[in-house]
Each structure stands twice: as structure tokens, then as C-alpha cells.
User: What shape does this take?
Amino acid sequence: GARGPRPFQAHAPGWESFSVDKSLLVEHSEYFRALFQSGMRESTQKEIQVRDLSAVGFSIMLQILQGEHPLLSCEENLKLVECASFLQVKAVAKYLIASINSDNCFLLYQAAAVFGLLDLFHSAALYIRDSYSDLEEDLDCLPPDLLGYVESLLPSTFVAVGAHTPTFEFLEDVSRTICYLDEDNNQWRTLSCLPLTATTFLAGMTTLDNKVYIVGGVYGYNKQVVEQSFCYDPASNSWSEFPSPQQLRYDVTLTGQEGHLYAIGGEFEKTPLKSVEKFDLSSKTWSFASDLPQAAGAVPCAQTMGRIFVCLWKPLDTTVIYEYAPAKDEWLPVSTLNREQSYGHCMVAHRDNLYIMRNGPFDDFLRCAIDRFNLTTMQWTALPGQYMNSKGALFTAVIRGDTVYTVNKMLTLLYSIEGNQWKFKKERAGFPRSGSLQTFLLRLPRTDHSIAT
Assistant: This one.
């Protein structure tokens, strides 16, 4: 077992040498693990040659394994797919999946088909399916079997749920429904009714692997915290319960990544919480993660490029972005935005940009200012103009492909993200209920449900 950095040679046109920590390769690459544990001559050599692999791909792979986040050109994407496949590096395949966008989805889809990276292949196909109408002109470039696979998949649908608290069973309660937008007919339809004891009022809601999870929230006049958590699976159209966090909480933020749910902050008995808990879906257990840097409820949260970000504010002028690093279980400060009497209420992510929606000056919530933070350049840009935010539409935005969906009782507005602005794309029917909303995307096996009233 060699310790410390050891040079390896990757074969490219000419030779290039890389000095690499052996343990890093053993940890992440099936190829190197098998090689070093084989007892063959290579397992004890100080230098080995890796043939038929580009030095560019190998170099980018090392950057990613060391925690960097490079933005890749078409050619670099290809070399990296080849490297991830040949060396069997799951972390690199994950990185590629997290970086799928409208510029590289066709290239990654076809490269994944050639090199047999099945998760990347499926993820790129789903991205193309979701952006089908925007990418229509380019679909001809796909061979018939690859196009057929895309068309066999369910597209994601825009789903919303209002703030509901449990009432008597015999009362017909329309707020107890989850609804989705049937875009073809411009109608909202009822997907499912919440379980009788579930609340969405001040609850954390998120989706993970095409299931909806609800944690926390309150019911009744004295705001009792709901003690069960709930999961909805659209594939079987069924609800199930799972344990609640060890610390009961409402006004909690919930997000999911890689088989885990994270319940972030919130309140209990009118006291804001710093604590964060992580639920392992396979073992069905909660454990505490690192505390937030400060106690906070209703924490804005977004994921992009496989990374989790939150906004905290130090009332009333400072919005601070933190990244949660699951491997280190740390909250890392990323950047700060100072704006007089204004702070971030909602955050959404697209490519390597975070978009922060904040109230206009002097607590003007009807007009929203949007600031963009770029994770690659670490620069802030204010989007030009202000965005109508009547009745909180912008505080529940979700992004599918290059399209932003916002909604309230009056209308659903779609924007396309172009350069440094959100351009109005189209208008759809408003959500048929008043009150605050939570929104997300789901793939629905059936879309013939009754119209929501």
C-alpha cells in the first residue's frame, strides 16, 4: 500500500504524467481498485501507464475528484464520458448527470449510449423529454432507437398544492388536494387528496426520485405540530407514512438528494431552529447533521450541479448564500448580497446560476427584484427591471429545462431563461385556490384526472 502522491502516466498523443494520490483513485475508480488489489506487478509499481485514454479526460476527472466544478466544452464532455466509462468512476458519471443542459444534452445522450453509462443515458433522455418542444428542431439528429427511447419516457408535469390544515372528515375540503397543470388543455386537474391527518401549512415539501415527501407543519388553532411524515408515489397513486424528525418542526425547509432527505431549520414553539436532520430512505432513520450557521425558518433552498444551497438573512439588509457539503457535513459560506430593506425569500437554480427573488424596496412584495449569482465566476448580476409578484407567484418558482414556472390564483406565468434575463414565454391558467402554494415537478403515469375546481 503506497502512501502519498504517486505519479501515473495517461496515454495521449505523446505521454503526459500525473502525480496522483493512490488512495483517491482506489476510492473512486473500480478499474484502479481492481488493479491495485490484484497482486499483479502494477499493484506495487510507482508508475503505471494507462493506454488508450485521453490526458484531457483524465485531468478533468482528477479535478472533479478533488472537489472542483469545471464547466466543460463539448469535446471535454466526450473525453470525460470515455474516462468515466473506462475507469468506472461513479463520481464522474454523477458530475456529468448534474451538468446536463440544453447545450450538451444530445451530445451526452449519444456518448452515454456509445460508452454504456446507463444512468447518464437515462438522465439525458429525461432532460430531452422534458424540453421536447424547445429542442424539437434538433431531435432529427438522433438515431430512431434513441429518439424512440426519449419518446417512451414520461415528461415532468408542473404540480402545486395549497396550504391545507386538517379539518373534520365530513367537511368537503378542496384545499386537501394536490393538483397539476394539464398544459395541452390549459386546465388544472386533481392528482390526489392528502391523507386526513397531513398538513401542508408551514410543512416542508420536496420531491426525490419522483415521490413527494411532506415533513412537519401545523394544524389547529393552537398550531400543533404534525407528528407523522408522509410520502406520495404517483406510480402507485398511494400514500405512506414514515417517521418524523427527532426535533418536531414547522416552517421547515425540506430538500432531497441521493437517497436522503434534509429537514433544514424551521421553528418549534415559536422559536427558530438551527438544527438540521437527515433522513436515510434505505434505513428509514433520522440523524442530526451540522447546524445551520444561524437559526432560521422558511429557509430558501435550491439545488444545481449536484450541489445544495440555502439563503439566510441577517435582517434586514443582508442575504448570505451557504452551500451544504454532504461529504464533509459542513455549511460553507459562498457569497453575500447587501440590499437596503430587502432580502431573499426564494431561490431557484439553473445551470451554474442561483436566482434570488427578493422583495422590492420598502417591503414591496408586489414587485420582485431578481439577483443572479454565478457559481463559476462568483459574480452577482441584477436582472434588468422588476418582476410582477402579485400574491407571491415568484416565491414558488420551479425550473424545467430552460423554462421557469410561476403561479398564483390569477395566472401561471412561464418565462424562458435567456442570457441575463427571464423573458416572458406564455401565460396559463391560474391555480384554482387562494393562499400560499408549494410547487414542484412530477412524472405522472396518468394525466386524465378530473378538473380541479
